[in-house]
Amino acid sequence: MSALLELDNIGCGYDGERVVEDLSLSLTEGDICCLLGPSGCGKTTVLRAIAGFLQPSAGRIELAGQLLASAEQSLAPEQRRVGMVFQDYALFPHLNVRDNLTFGLKNQSAREKARICDELLQLVKLEDLGHRYPHELSGGQQQRIALARALAPEPKLLLMDEPFSSLDVELRRALALEVRAILKERGITAIMVTHDQSEAFAMADRIGVLNAGQLQQWDTPFNLYHEPATRFVANFVGQGVFLAGYLLDRHTVRTELGDIEGNRCYEWLENTPVDILLRPDDVIHDDSSDKRAEVVAKVFAGTATLYTLQLPTGSRIQSAFPSHHDYAIGDHVGIRIEADHLIVFRREEQAVGGSHYGLETTES
Ligand SMILES: Nc1ncnc2c1ncn2[C@@H]1O[C@H](COP(=O)(O)OP(=O)(O)OP(=O)(O)O)[C@@H](O)[C@H]1O
Fold first, then answer.
1. 109-156, pLDDT tens digit by residue?
2. CATH number reported for the structural domain that contains residue 42 in this entry
3. Which GO biological process entries does UniProt record here (predicted)?
4. Is 17 close to ligand 1, i.e. is its CB under 6 Å away?
5. If both were cysteines, with which of 143, 148, 190, 276 could 158 make a disulfide (CB 3.0 to 4.6 Å apart)?
6. Domain that includes residue 248, residue range
7. Does residue 57 lie within any of the structural domains?
8. Is residue 61 situated within a structural domain?
9. Ligand 1 atom nearest 45 alpha carbon
């Protein structure tokens, strides 16, 4: 599949101040992507630049080979064939659902508009509500109508800015999956902005993680979790903690939990100080293990309980135990590490000898 949208080193901001720097990404036709990141990192700013509400001060934005914007020129929003769904639905309160849906259709006959309307109402499964006014619809129904309205002019690209954030958690999840199915059915290419990871994971083929206006990684949900490219992504996506250690050889990290061997080769020298990312599913409950840790916090989550465990040196790790193992704060539990995808980042300090990090306590 070819790239539909290309952002090439764009920079943009407000009042001469750059908010987004050197951002490049390429979106394949038919893909749904999410921009994910903490509040204020620039997600909406990127969306506004693509929609045409903000002109980039550097770089180029192209859609299907056509230049949408650069520092020198900018195509008007209505000429871009880019649809937009907003957080607050933005339906016209004085128009009923059918009139909302056809509002943006200027060149079609009444008959053609009626056909498009029927088709879209069927797509979002609200066939019987065409006569209702926005205030007579639930939040989820309003957002489905807002989606249908954005699809009516057949945009090449759909942008959605936190489309589910006004809805309660249960409805958000359900609607995220439903909207994904609708977009896939129509082969719509879309970008959604969210700061909710589970929503991004449920919706997206590809996720861009932003921090302070910089794209940290543009990847599949699987790779973001298992192969985070930066410390920020490792911290921001999923759960887990860093445990200090140093490189024993090119495959093995020595930590206070013993020597942990991963499935890859590191290019750093022996004794390089590193931090190893341990996800809760890398730390396995094992009563027969001689590695012990103290339970210092626990969060029950149905099928599993997330324990925060303190090691003899005071370092803390997390582990998800099946929830029928019920331990109390202060209990000591056996653990072992099972980490195939060993995620390691170099720690910026002097190389160390073998007696650091309380390793004496865990070496046999
Ligand atoms: N119209 C504006 N004028 C000046 N600064 C702005 C304007 N809009 C946004 N900003 C600033 O630009 C930065 C990025 O804002 P943006 O809305 O893109 O963040 P975001 O990642 O979408 O955040 P959130 O998740 O909170 O919506 C913030 O520091 C914000 O204060």
1. 899 999 999 989 988 889 899 999 999 999 889 988 998 999 998 899
2. 3.40.50.300
3. quaternary ammonium group transport
4. no
5. 190
6. 243-362
7. no
8. no
9. 18
